Amino acid sequence: MTAFIEDDAPVIVQGMTGHQGMTHTARMLKARTNIVGGVNPRKAGTTVPFEDADGNTVEIPVFATVQEAKDATGAQASVVFVPPKFAKGAVVEAVEAKMPVVVVITEGIPVADSAYFVELALENGVRIVGPNCPGLMTLPSGEDSHGVNLGIIPDGIVSRGPLGLVSKSGTLTYQMMEELSDIGFTACLGAGGDPIVGTTLQEALEAFEADDDTKAVVMIGEIGGNAEQDAAQWAAAHMTKPVVAYIAGFTAPEGKQMGHAGAIVSGGKGTAQDKKEALEAAGIPVGKSPKAAADIMRGLLADL
Amino acid sequence: MDLYEYQARELLEEQGIPTPRAVYAGSVEHVADAAETIGFPLVVKGQAKIGHRGQAGAVKLAADLDDAVAMARDIMPMTIHGHRVNGVLLAEAKNVLHEYYVSISVDRSSRDFDVLATANGGTEVEEIAREHPESVRRLHIDALEDFDLEAATQMAESIGFYHADVDQAARILLKMWRCFKDNDATLVEINPLAKVGDPDDEDSKELVALDAKISLDDNAAFRHDGWARFRDPVVADALEREAKDNGLHYVHLDGEVGVIGNGAGLVMSSLDAVAYAGEDQGSGVKAANFLDIGGGASASVMAKSLELVLRDPKVESVLINVYGGITSCQTVAEGVLEAVAALGVDKPIVIRFDGNAAAEGLATLEKASLDNIHVARTMEDAASLAAQYAADAIAANAASAARREEDEQ
């Protein structure tokens, strides 16, 4: 058992037959993710050939709807590579089919659409990860099983270990995985860089706190919003495991959006300094660089 | 995207929210005609995408045409906290009896929509919240439930609108919500929502939106014709505009080290690393820009990025920080060499590669063996080296300027 999703969980891909979907479905299969289907109403009934991790060709069936795919395959998660225009419809469909985990990679979804499907997911007990995120990767909890790689996180950087990782940023996720590759992870979750996301930093901490195999958590934040402060407040009251943080954007100017839709300091709110102070007040040390945060984590683990 | 007040008014009017009569004048020549339509006295309001316009002297009451023209002449060239004034709005002056504040915005923490309101309007809401926190009401509109007149009426009552204003306030709240939803706004703020009229004549009293601020969701531009009607005539920054046209996330800053990376977080982290290095080295150099090449960038995207960054005359060195996920460091290396050859770049470029095809990318750079391309192993080392090169170049420039001055004397 691992946080968020079981080893070898069957997975479908929404938008599999598109360019992004094809590229990343191939990658996810190489990483031994158990991809069992794709969804595209116009190509329902066909199959798409991919190469699996052992070099064999596998035919992945395409279904008309998420419900159909779930009924036929028992899928426990869906990865969404659908363009922004159609993303709301795709995610709502997955939520209504009560897909337990829906990972939304798409960048550029209107915030009103995200607000709608995130609320719908919360009411239906569905966990959404993202949008605008690199995905969710778990490492196998047993020798005979495989983790799942849902999204675009590069495979092969890390192996199983006692850490959990949650991050608002994609490449900083990979950077941090590499910094702590000698220790290893249970799961790495890209929360996403949009103003409204399905799994907040706090909710990721809650999941890692509940997971017996995770012993400590690294959290990567950035300017904009209050997610770090909310997580700090929750952690101070409920978290028994050590958390170490890194925040990007101390030198970002006010009023400028720094790449991510949610990465903006406005009206003096959402600064990296505010986040650092809130985290430190909650007993969560903040590294000055990803490497510094990794070093702090290494020190804490030595004392556990 | 933030709108100007005159644009925000348009959106409110489209929903039937009462506003004072007003005409926008884009230049001083248009002020006379516009003023005649409104009549006197009128308010001359400089249009800039920033608050505190009144305190900055960009909002004035004009008694006659000479006044209005003189004021417009003063206000039009102003820059308020870095935001250039783009024309003036000439608005009918109203007799204000009371000021409320109401806004609807995206609430990132509760993941729904936030209605913030107070019966003490007029000033910036941050100040109101500081001085009269008890007067500020915060309510939520659920992302799944519809907001109707009944809900709006309940909300108007709980916000603390005076009894006589509740019905009109409820209708305005509902229209604000429609304005917010229909336009994919992230903020609709009316401040003040003023009660205006003759104090002795009840029938003359009504609620009017005297000023408004609206921000639109850039991600929703695809379902609004790309917001073409709100395209800002004020070119904020030529480099930023060109980057945008090329699909690049570029933010112009004021330092000396050009920064390029893949992924918004990694680039922000690189900006911080450069600033820390500048501090540690005592030079105070900082990043000149933020540029995210995104995921899976091609060689031509990389080349275009380098060209853009180097066009900033303040840039003395460039830091390229790539952690290859989808992006291949080899492709990035090819793009760098392509741009360096095409532009004849001689400024120092410090490169840090990790992840996907990092070894191949580094080998490609090494094979090219260019004097101005330097490789560092970690992000911190790369930032430190780039900051050092920039500081050296600044010192060399200063020395040669001093020599020139001596020669001339």
Please provide a written account of the structure.
The complex is a heterodimer of chains A (304) and B (409). By secondary structure, chain A is an alpha/beta fold. Chain A has two domains: 11-129, NAD(P)-binding Rossmann-like Domain (Rossmann fold, 3-Layer(aba) Sandwich); 157-303, Succinyl-CoA synthetase domains (Rossmann fold, 3-Layer(aba) Sandwich). Helices cover 34% and strands 22% of the residues of chain A. Chain A contains nine helices and 14 strands. Chain A has helices at residues 19-30, 66-73, 84-96, 111-124, 170-179, 201-210, 227-238, 272-281, 290-303, and strands at 11-14, 35-39, 47-51, 57-63, 77-80, 101-104, 127-129, 135-138, 149-151, 160-167, 185-190, 216-222, 243-248, 286-287. In chain A, the strands form two sheets. In chain A, strands 3-4-2-1-5-6-7 form a seven-stranded mixed beta sheet, with helices on both faces. In chain A, strands 9-8-11-10-12-13-14 form a seven-stranded mixed beta sheet, with helices on both faces. In chain A, strand 1, helix 1 and strand 2 (35-39) form a beta-alpha-beta unit. In chain A, helix 3 packs parallel to helix 4 and helix 7 (227-238) packs parallel to helix 8 (272-281). The longest helix of chain A is centred in the middle third of the chain and has 14 residues, at 111-124. Chain A starts with 10 loop residues before the first strand and ends with a helix. With 409 residues, chain B is of the alpha+beta class. Chain B folds into three domains: 1-20 and 95-234, ATP-grasp fold, B domain (D-amino Acid Aminotransferase, Chain A, domain 1); 21-93, ATP-grasp fold, A domain (Dna Ligase, domain 1, 2-Layer Sandwich); 238-404, Succinyl-CoA synthetase domains (Rossmann fold). In chain B, the strands form five sheets. In chain B, strands 7, 8, 9, 10, 11 and 12 form a six-stranded antiparallel beta sheet that branches. A four-stranded antiparallel beta sheet of chain B has the order 1-6-2-3, covered by helices on one side. In chain B, helix 5 crosses helix 6 (166-182), helix 8 (264-281) crosses helix 12 and helix 9 (299-311) crosses helix 10 (329-343). Chain B is elongated. The chains are: A alpha/beta (304), B alpha+beta (409).
